[in-house]
């Protein structure tokens, strides 16, 4: 390579927007003048308007809707020094990985899910596919699939904490306001939010408490639940907001009770709240327990009732709230800094450039141009796809009915399976037409 030529890094992502999009864009803005590497983003689906505006303003390189142009994408992959796949269980991404044979290339897969709960799980062919597999959080080492993988696959694993950085919330200062505001910023959908969120808020015995909820997409439906419970006046559902600082400055506590089955990893909203000095109260899920130090940078509640008591405790004890605020801010500025993430990626790029390029082909049971969309869906689920495989291969009505009962049980086992996105049957059906997929989508 010429001394004057930069190494080219091609980022492939299902879409650009939301949490992962902001992480990637903030990273690229910070390093866009790097002398060693140049970056290009390819979205298989869309880039939202906000992402497009940022890209245009900062002079970054972005193309979207590449699910229609696999051949052009393969050419770009061949011309790149490094291919960095931003991975989660998205139909368009799995469609590309399972169907296409890649030309010689170096591949890094960066996982943006924790891997604990289906349908967002790790599958072994992904570890065969990439030269390196990067977690966004070390808690993913505890996932069952990782424990079962061979040492060869485990040797590929690295960890780079995913962050938007903390600088843009570092100057947030508490703003005088009436009442006691318990704030939430993030996904407002029971695939992420605890299903008893409304009940927990209603159980908090603070007369002047107000619950300010920022995010979507189910804000109207969940607000409707609060109204039915007779406590709608306590809530303010803001939908998606452009400037979170306006809300962080009026939050007294960051109430962040997530479902035990949620798919998240680095929880950007939680990191932002801590960086702004807003004390978090979380439940004892793996990711939140890794991010918050109980009694030092926030409070980790063991269950829903402890969550209620924790918020009440912080209301009554302003001194404790102030102490935890200072400690949360100090810890977050160090642990969730963009500079730390940049350093981690530099180290990984050096490692992978020493590896030779090689072709890539999906090594699961199903692969190649002729696989069905139902088979791609099965591939995305690992061991959780076995019951769908039973349905696919059923040779008589009895076998099919037996598989249908098992699928029904899965579909009713948690909100994650009923989401219209998140790698569910419904998500795959939104992109692909397949007789078997459409049949399964009718199971409730």
Helix and strand topology:
Layout: E1 7-13, H1 18-31, E2 37-43, H2 49-58, E3 62-63, H3 70-79, E4 82-87, H4 91-99, E5 102-105, E6 107-111, E7 116-117, E8 120-121, H5 124-129, E9 132-135, H6 144-148, H7 151-154, E10 157-159, E11 180-185, H8 197-203, E12 209-214, H9 219-228, E13 235-239, H10 245-248, E14 253-256, H11 268-275, E15 280-283, H12 286-291, E16 299-301, H13 304-316, H14 318-335, H15 338-352, E17 358-360, H16 373-381, H17 386-393, H18 397-411, H19 425-431, H20 435-440
Parallel strand pairs: 1-2, 1-4, 2-3, 4-6, 6-9, 9-10, 11-12, 11-14, 12-13, 14-15, 15-16
Antiparallel strand pairs: 5-17, 7-8
Shape: globular
Q: How many strands? A: 17
Main beta-sheet annotation: 7 strands, parallel
Task: Supply Rg.
Answer: 23 Å
Structural class, please? alpha/beta
Reading side by side through the largest sheet, how are the strands ordered?
3-2-1-4-6-9-10
Q: Identify low-pLDDT runs.
A: none
Strand content: 15-25%
Taking all residues together, what is the mean pLDDT?
Answer: 94
- Give the terminus-to-terminus CA distance: 56 Å
Q: Helical residue percent?
A: 40-55%
- Helix count, DSSP H or I runs of 4 or more residues: 20
Describe the structure.
With 444 residues, this protein is an alpha/beta fold. The chain has helices at 18-31, 49-58, 70-79, 91-99, 124-129, 144-148, 151-154, 197-203, 219-228, 245-248, 268-275, 286-291, 304-316, 318-335, 338-352, 373-381, 386-393, 397-411, 425-431, 435-440; strands at 7-13, 37-43, 62-63, 82-87, 102-105, 107-111, 116-117, 120-121, 132-135, 157-159, 180-185, 209-214, 235-239, 253-256, 280-283, 299-301, 358-360. The strands form four sheets. It has a seven-stranded parallel sheet, sandwiched between helices. Helix 1 (18-31) runs parallel beside helix 2, helix 4 (91-99) packs across helix 16 and helix 17 runs antiparallel to helix 18. The longest helix is centred in the C-terminal third of the chain and has 18 residues, at 318-335. The mean pLDDT is 94.
